[in-house]
Write a structure and sequence with these properties.
alpha/beta, Rossmann fold, Alpha-Beta Plaits, seven-stranded mixed sheet, four-stranded antiparallel sheet, 14 strands, globular, binds ribulose-5-phosphate
Length: about 270
């Protein structure tokens, strides 16, 4: 098997295992992530539907245009997040979604993740935030001790096109010491680069920038190793015009990694 096929097989195994563990007839609302690994989750959902193992009233909440197409093509029913009732109105839990299965670009030892390689992280974060459980699926190349050490394309940051140059300049002046911003433990650096770089993501086969499903631009912000994901997420989020940051700190409850030898690892924080 070619190395590309081995990676695809690893992604598929992780996706199938996560769906098998988390999706049964008791699941009423399911979040569907975006990207190439999630395609295999949709493949497994189609099989389960044929076997009569899904809830007949199952609603699927998409995280992007691509994800909505996957839902429709799988013969499942798509629902918008704000059209759903909360699962348990009597409790403080505001979740509308039982479980969301999504891909990731890098996942650290505590299951903090970088997402947004496909530019869908705004809706992905909204859906994750409204989910009782966020389950990540990936091949083992994404499994990392420290964010920023494997995914070297920068943190995807969705920004307003109205001020992208100003936002870029401001992000490039972010101080590496979280101490300067009072956001994390004194003396500890949130990230390693002295001079972060923010690059406007360019479209392929179209001149000009990537325009997200929400009509915004994406800056890919390289900061080196991310020692304190929450502090970096907060630092970036504070810049006016930043719409969403592709760091998901403390959101995932489980991550499934497919290995090249065909084995699968499931990790919890
Ligand atoms: O966050 C995402 C899209 O915004 C994807 O989930 C992430 O980029 C992983 O994609 P893939 O499964 O193709 O590696």
């Amino acid at each position: 098997m070619s190395s590309a096929n081995i990676i695809e097989q690893a992604k598929r195994s992780a996706a199938f295992a996560a769906v098998d563990k988390h999706v049964d007839s008791t699941v009423r609302v399911l979040g569907i992530g975006s990207g190439s690994t999630v395609v295999y989750a949709a493949e497994r959902l189609v099989q389960l539907k044929k076997e009569g193992k899904l809830n007949p009233d199952l609603l699927c909440v998409p995280t992007s245009f691509q994800s909505k197409q996957l839902i429709v093509e799988a013969g499942l029913r798509a629902a918008d997040l704000d059209d759903l009732p909360v699962l348990d109105p009597e409790s403080a839990d505001f979740s509308s979604i039982d479980v969301t299965i999504d891909g990731a670009d890098e996942v650290d030892a505590k299951l903090n993740a970088i997402k947004g390689g496909g530019g869908a992280h705004l809706r992905e974060k909204l859906v994750a935030n409204a989910s009782r459980k966020l389950v990540l699926i990936a091949d083992s190349r994404k499994d990392s001790e420290t964010l920023g050490t494997k995914w070297d394309k920068g943190i995807p940051v969705e920004v307003s096109p109205l001020a992208w140059r100003t936002i870029k300049r401001q992000l490039e002046r972010m101080a590496p010491l979280s101490r300067a911003h009072g956001l994390a433990k004194a003396e500890s650096a949130a990230f390693s680069f002295d001079h972060p770089q923010a690059v406007l993501r360019q479209a392929v086969r179209k001149a000009g920038p990537v325009v997200t499903d929400n009509g915004n631009f994406i800056l890919d912000v390289s900061v080196g190793s991310i020692y304190d994901p929450l502090a970096v997420e907060q630092l970036i989020k504070m810049v006016p015009g930043v719409i969403e940051v592709g760091i998901f700190s403390g959101m995932a409850k489980e991550a499934w990694f497919g290995n090249e030898d065909g084995s699968i690892v499931c990790r919890e924080p």
